[in-house]
Amino acid sequence: MGSVALKDIRKSYGAVEVLHGIDLDIADGEFTVLVGPSGCGKSTLLRSIAGLETISGGDIILDDTKINTLQPKERDIAMVFQNYALYPHMTVAKNMGFSLRLSKVDKDEIDRKVRAAAEILDLTPLLDRYPRQLSGGQRQRVAMGRAIVRDPKVFLFDEPLSNLDAKLRVQMRSEIKELHQRLKTTTIYVTHDQIEAMTMADKIVVMRGGHVEQIGSPLELYENPASVFVAGFIGSPSMNFVRASAGADGIEYADGHWLGRPAAAIAPGRAVIAGFRPEDMRLADTGLPARVALVEPTGAETQLVLRTGQDSLVMTTRERVTQKPGDLVHVVVSEGKLHCFDADTERSLAPGAAPA
Amino acid sequence: MNEQPRVLYWTMLSLIGLVIAVYILFPVFWLFLASFKTQAELAQLPINFWPQTPTLDAYAALFSDTHQKGQLLDWPRLIGNSFFIAVTSTIIVLIFGTFAGYAFARLQFPGRDLILGGLLISRMFQGAALLLPTYRLMSMIGLQDSLIGLVLLYSAFGLPFATWIIASSLREIPRELEESAMMDGASRLQSMVLVVLPLATPALITAAMWHFVGAWSEFAFASILLESNENKTVTIGLASFVELFTLEFQYVGAAATIVALPIMLVFFFGQRYFTRGLLAGAVKG
To answer: Which terms does the UniProt entry file under GO BP (chain A) (predicted)?
Structure first.
């Protein structure tokens, strides 16, 4: 078992508060990703759960037990660090067995558990090597192996893939995900990469400036972002945002062109921020006029950069594009795909969206 | 194309190095050779560079009772004293320096940087200025003419630098390693002993070498504090030759060789750690 509940977690360094009351419930076995730009407090939150930082307020509850003041070693939580933090003077086997040795587990038992973990992670041939003799991906796996031999209640990952090259990152991403599906251990994973968050998480927690911006499954966040920040952060390429206003029959762009209908009625004349994803736009005979600035084919898709008024819009399409830079086109937003946000608070105006 | 200037450059550099080495080592080597000569040969003119009839008489004399001429100090005893002082104070410095260094490197406490800076400043006062105050202090607490007194004194003198070397090397060890050890179930002490210290070995060896050599060859404080013959150290023994044997230079050579031997051994076996330890923190990566 390993369910985690965070209640109003606060953390201050001197007079500076970096976590402003975080509430979060993580069910047993859930893969939760904390995501946000650097400085948003996600790593601090993770380290607080680990016990490496003391919190200034609130409660951390692991399986009905308050663990606020417990030492890291008493929490039954394992952590994989960004730079792996393998012990350089120990072999792979010794690295993985270190925690068991500390808890005075019988030698044969340690050996058996280390071998079992090495088997899962494909590390068996490397057990006698030292960390310096391993590649980045192998080191990453040893760091994971060190966590899984302990069979802890919770795994914590602190940006574990950021030191790997792009190709390896994708590979390790699926390995971690597979590992989780196999072990079903509660996992809290910190990253600044929204693609990692989207692909791995059961639940994503978007953080910004020490607050939780939105919590939800990857597709919930994608389809119903609660704010401009979340909408822009999740999804690649990012959502387009334009200044617009509510008209009698929907949302109108600054030049009066009709963009689409909002999910809930908005008082005519109200200024809003309209958002629409690149993949929810298509070329049409009528609609918002725009000039093609760039055409970027990526194979399966083509990305178009368009200019209209003051705005630059990105759209992607799977159709073959015959237009050239400089051509005038008309674009429309697919039915029901227009997101509206309050122009001042930047919170979503969709029904059911959490108020600011 | 530019191969030739490079070869020339390195040849010149090596030559200069060689000249400096010979210049420094020649007197040492000559003293070493003198220890194998007889007194007659030493008095002979013109001077022979190589011993004509190499003999170990001088060494035998230093180590035997029968050949003692009354005035010759008890050399096995001197060597024993020096070893006792150097080894014991090295152990003390290493133990305290490690814990203090760890505290400076890892813990937050008020005045930390000030104290660490103060440690270095304390090194500037060493030397002649401290001789008399130290003598008075040691007499007052009854530790003059005592090996233990000298051990404590050398430890006090050696600790700041050892602490400083160890602290700066511990700072280079990523914090995550310790955090990782703590997540793995280690206490702070366990993470220090099992993870941090093995990685700080070069610094620990450097600090130990530095202190051992300093304590082994210290003369000024030993000479004013130690009075009785059975408490004297090798450096005092060497100095005593100046008055005793103006002509019997082979004894000086033999004693000097014996005194230099441990230092040479220490450097021979420790030099690869030594440069690493001293350079800790000098270069990133």
So the answer is: carbohydrate transport
